[in-house]
Amino acid sequence: MMCMNPEKCVLCDDEIEHPYLPMEEWKIDGHLCGKCYSKKLSEFYPGDHVRVDLSEK
């Protein structure tokens, strides 16, 4: 029986529930968690909208 290790985000090393692929221009190799993906989107495409709560808990 194979034991699958949970996938980790390449930026924050948290476990990933749903993997996101980084955009090519970000030059990141691997999957991102939703929080890091949203942070990268806001860096490359700034605006007033909030995609997810990026505040620290």
Automatic annotation (TrEMBL):
Domain of life: Archaea
Protein name as it appears in the record: Uncharacterized protein
Organism (species): uncultured marine thaumarchaeote KM3_125_A06
